[in-house]
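Service request form, structural biology core

Requester: graduate student, group of Dr. S.
Request type: structure prediction, single chain
Budget code: on file
Notes: please return the result as structure tokens.

Sequence provided:
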Amino acid sequence: MTEQEISNTDTFQLISRCVEEIERRQLNIAGGRSDWVSLSYEFASIGESGRDLFHRCAQLDSSYQYNENEGLFAYALRRGNRSGVGALINRFKRVGVDVAAIRREIGYNVPYIQISRPTAIYTPSYNYISPDIIKRLQGQKNTFVDFLHTLFDSPKLDAAVERYCIGGDSHGRTIFPNLDQEGRCVGGAVIPYLANGHRDKSKGASNIHAELRRKDKTLPTQADQVLFGSHLLRLYPSATVGVVESQKSAVILSLTYPNMVWLATAGLTNFNERLLAPIYDRNVVCYPDVNGVQEWTERAKQLPFKNIRISDWWRYAQDEKEDITDVVIRAIQQEKAPYSVPDFIIDHFRQEAVTDLCRLFQLEVITTEPQQWKSRPKKEKRITIMDRLRKEGKYV
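Core staff response, request fulfilled:
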């Protein structure tokens, strides 16, 4: 038996003992359905033998469904990923399992063999940024918010800025914190904007960790990555989720059509299974930039998500470099009434909502045009024999 085979056998024994401890203490290590995708990859890293262990852990959650979880594990196994054991061990440690004691108990002394980790496996570093820092940055002005004041009224805009915790720095750059579903800041982007709302490409973008390291070199150099706006998912558990590329688009669309939860991938290539895992069981509509429609469409077909589709908003675009906010901003600026969103923009989102409902309940769309109310015609009074006799004067 080779050293690799010995390591795999002992690793399975270690994980099995950890799962037994989790069952004994009735610990929920998944954190809900949104975390099952990552969990399936971690258990699939030990091969087919991880299938039963995965179900034993997942069923401790109240929303567990066998067929759904079986499909997730089968998909992760087909992907052929053979790493993520370290992420699984760290998950056990976070819920209070004494992994070191179990190692000693089973005599797990085989040297650890490091295996390259694919990008689909997510191992949090937990280098959270202090909430005090985020709160302090929120009080500073920035060029992006100043531009939004020309499009939207102040009460609505102030609520959106607070909802997404948008801040600024001493250079007028905009800070978009990335908060996870627990509301903890795992990082964020620092982006300079021009007065017209476009990015200032003469100045490079940065991130919060890099800026903080300018003063303290001991801070971590790399932060975890989550969807911008992930902290809003728990606040609106049943709302449709809109996914866009940029943080700017998420903020503007939340002001334009607040009936959806708007999240951003912060890049075209970030549209992947690992980053989108928290919304795999939600109704998702994606709004990529025009030049990313084809790529996101192909990637969406490969995702094991329940309800995800790509919007056809691009038919309103004027060139291939535009995103949906360019259409919205242009339409708002062309309106004579200030702070008003054009009707065709609102109608577009309403039509997509109707399409999603019909797809969900297998209905047929007859029309999405508003119908005029027509009063029911009054029925003619039925003439009886007595009425006829009274009319002829034969009955009084």
